[in-house]
Amino acid sequence: MNIGTYSFEEYMERIQAFHGSTAPGMIAGGIMVTIARGHLPKGEIFDVISESGHCLPDAVQLLTPCTIGNGWLKIVNTSRYALIFYNKYTGAGVRVYLDAHKLAGFPAVRGWFLRELPKPEQDLGAIVQEFKRAGQAIFGLQKVQVKPEYIQGEKKVRAAIAICPVCGEAYKSNLGDICPACRGTAPFLVVQDGGDA
Amino acid sequence: MNIGTYSFEEYMERIQAFHGSTAPGMIAGGIMVTIARGHLPKGEIFDVISESGHCLPDAVQLLTPCTIGNGWLKIVNTSRYALIFYNKYTGAGVRVYLDAHKLAGFPAVRGWFLRELPKPEQDLGAIVQEFKRAGQAIFGLQKVQVKPEYIQGEKKVRAAIAICPVCGEAYKSNLGDICPACRGTAPFLVVQDGGDA
Hints:
2 copies of one chain form a homodimer. The first copy, chain A, starts with a strand and ends with a strand. Chain A contains 5 helices and 10 strands, in the order ββααβαβββααββββ. By secondary structure, the first copy, chain A, is an alpha+beta fold. In chain A, strand 5 and strand 6 form a beta hairpin. Chain A has 2 domains: 149 residues, CATH 3.30.1330.130; 36 residues, Wheat Germ Agglutinin (Isolectin 2), domain 1. In chain A, helix 4 packs across helix 5. The interface between A and B is large, with 92 and 92 residues. Strand 10 of chain A pairs antiparallel with strand 7 of chain B.
């Protein structure tokens, strides 16, 4: 079984390097990316939505040009284990999901996916072997139409940048008179202002 | 100037491969990561918060073990151009930001960062040269204490997985009787249910 342009073993090495561990979700994600790309028209310029923030976004970032930082990958957390690949201009695309109803013959994958087994009792080796045996058979596929807010429309006018009168930092001026952080969304408190780096 | 363990030129190649373009924000981000790591205790096990979803998360993912999919990188969008590196258990850390008040001698960077120039008029070559000349001089540094919700506390009990009675897919049972997507957050409409991948 190949994952994208990698052999399964090469992909396992790439997971370790990028994600830090050979998590089952990265193996599932690799197969899901491979299925999705196989169902897109050749040469399609696609964007991706991940319905989970766990593992799946990293499989997309390893195997496609789409990253969180370049905006071609978005996370819309529905708590489901699914990836949507779609034409960024029309929104037409495919959705691939891990299908809980197809796991009867794959107890190790099932134990992990449905959390039937506590983590220390999960057997990673068995999970990997079951994924290799299952291949694409445990996934579902849908044709979907992505909602307009995720489709690239007319070129938006980019907001001007303002300097926040409270913190003194740059932010998008269309977000208000002071920046979102100074309105209370900052995830931290300043202990000491160093000024220079 | 080095970016992480790369020479500037090597880093530019890595940006192109991972992010798809040598965006100014990736250069800023690379310098910011380098500053932040230089101010962390040696061997610190850190998490990262990016205050912007543009470019910065990709610089973190290229240069550190922290990714969106492994959970060690989070995006808390305040619209400011800043990264926070912090001890994942105590929340003590450093915050690095691009300081708009230090850009007087760097017109190309300023034109990009404050959007004073429309994109087609920005000179990427000049921006790159100014970043190389500026190095760490155009960034600010703060010691910060990250809020408790971003710190790793007692091991949480992981929610059981349920099968949604509407869509039939697996989701975290603590999110309600039906999954979030079936309550209206799905970013798409199903056009055709393929069933098997």
